[in-house]
Design brief:
By secondary structure, this protein is α/β, with parallel strands linked by helices. The chain has helices spanning 2-8, 19-27, 166-174, 213-223, 238-251, 268-276, 310-329; strands spanning 15-17, 35-39, 52-53, 63-64, 68-71, 81-88, 102-106, 118-121, 131-133, 144-145, 156-158, 179-183, 187-193, 197-198, 209-210, 227-234, 254-258, 279-284, 286-287, 291-296, 302-306, 338-343, 347-348, 354-362, 369-372, 389-393, 399-400, 405-410. Helix content is 19%, strand content 30%. It binds adenosine monophosphate and magnesium ion.
Length: 416
């Protein structure tokens, strides 16, 4: 229907899609990037390209969990005094043996000598160095960390598609990996369009605004794990947009544009993409974020054209660009975590459009309460920094009462 009307009005044809349909079409643009091997220090935030197996048992040998004495439990009696044969600090690489009737002083993290079957904590003794008096006893097996009780050599400790967080970095190091095979990071180029745009830091003349979507998109792409190769700003000039797109396509795996994709007279991204073919204008049944375009540039590089209103741009990145970047990064989970929260105040929502409202989650009661922030206008930037969630209102829902359960998208970063 919209297509027929558009054609009749002489406007370029736009596909009409639901948010989910458009998100699926965007995700189909690219798959995971080829694997690369990186040093462990560069692995955080990247997705593993293959399963990782441990090179060693963890712990690698039976070790002491306490400062105290390596003993045979059967030698222990309250009040007994035993000879201390040796001292074993952490890092001692000797293979020692404890004869019956004597003990060895041992520190946390040191290897337990053969013959010993327990560690007697120093607190249960007089702490002697030549001879030690036993105050209380322990059973066989006490305070020994057994070889392989945590991880066995050859065990798969991390799987392809896992995104490496700090805990995984620790595990990789402990299991003997100095480098790791991950997927490449998607190279993202950002193109901001608008003759009204002035760089932040420059004074504004009447009719001008600071360029904020470029920095916003660059930050969002970096947070998603991408490598931002450039942020370029061009005025509303079709030739300038075409030249910039052609250049950025050669240097990026994905080009993201903002502005100029609507139905106005100066919507130059729309005109540039239509002139070069390969992209499709879309009317997405969502709010904010209705006008979009998606496709490939002449050189085959995927291009996503987002609307210029800063809130629309922010939400569109979340719903379309971020999942694609996560997919290219090789992450198993490309979508944000979804939660159910309680609405703090009532919501009215347009029929037939999926609505995404900026919200702050209040966890003070223990379960999340969604407090919408910033108002419905997609130009309202004031509260954007406070939003850590999007309330997700289905197309067919027009009203939700205060206290109602509501689906929210958690915008906080999680390593997973
Ligand atoms: P457009 O999608 O080009 O029609 O722009 C919609 C609104 O968003 C207009 O008010 C623009 O001035 C504003 N806008 C477009 N691009 C940017 C940008 N990069 N930074 C801040 N605001 C922008
Ligand atoms: Mg514009």
């Amino acid at each position: 229907m919209a297509d027929v009307l558009a054609a009749a009005a002489g406007l370029p044809v736009r596909l009409v899609r639901s948010l989910d349909e458009h998100a699926a079409a965007v995700l189909a643009l690219a798959g995971p990037l080829p694997p690369v091997t990186v040093p462990l220090a560069d692995a955080r935030g990247r997705a593993l390209a293959s399963d990782v197996r441990s090179a060693v048992d963890l712990p690698p040998w039976d070790g002491s969990a306490m400062d105290g004495y390596a003993v045979r439990a059967s030698d222990l009696r309250p009040g007994a005094v035993l000879d201390v044969a040796d001292d074993v600090p952490a890092g001692d690489t000797r293979t020692l043996r404890v004869p019956a009737g004597v003990v060895v002083r041992i520190m946390t993290g040191a290897p337990v000598p053969e013959g010993a079957d327990a560690v007697l904590p120093v607190e249960l003794t007089d702490g002697g160095t030549g001879r030690v008096r036993i105050d209380r006893v322990v059973a066989a097996g006490a305070h020994i960390r057994r070889r392989g009780e945590d991880v066995r050599a050859g065990d798969v400790v991390l799987q392809a598609g896992d995104v490496v967080g700090p805990g995984a970095v620790g595990l990789l190091a402990a299991t003997g990996h100095a480098e790791v095979e991950v997927h490449g990071r998607p190279r993202v180029a950002v193109l901001s369009t608008g003759s009204e745009l002035v760089a932040p830091g420059q004074p504004l003349r009447h009719g001008q605004i600071h360029e904020s979507n470029g920095p916003q998109l660059a930050a969002a792409a970096a947070a998603a794990g991408a490598d931002v190769v450039d942020v370029v700003v061009v005025p509303d000039d079709v030739a300038a947009v075409r030249a910039a797109l052609a250049d950025l396509g050669t240097r990026a795996d994905v080009v993201v544009t903002t502005g100029g994709v609507s139905v106005g007279a100066y919507d130059v991204v729309r005109d540039a993409l239509l002139a070069d073919g390969g992209a499709q204008l879309v009317h997405v049944r969502m709010q904010p974020g209705k006008p979009q375009a998606v496709g490939v540039l002449a050189d085959g590089t995927p291009v996503l054209a987002l609307p210029g209103n800063p809130v629309s741009c922010f939400v569109s990145f979340e719903m379309f660009v971020r999942p694609l970047l996560r997919r290219m990064l090789g992450a198993r989970h490309v979508h944000r975590r979804a939660l159910t929260a309680t609405l703090a105040s009532e919501i009215r929502s347009p029929a037939g459009r999926r609505q995404l409202l900026r919200a702050r989650l209040d966890w003070s009661t223990g379960s999340p309460v969604a407090v919408t922030v910033g108002g419905p206008g997609s130009h309202l930037l004031g509260a954007l920094a406070r939003a850590d969630a999007l309330v997700d209102v289905r197309e067919d829902v027009t009203h939700l009462a205060a206290g109602a359960p509501v689906a929210v998208i958690d915008l906080r970063e999680h390593d997973a």
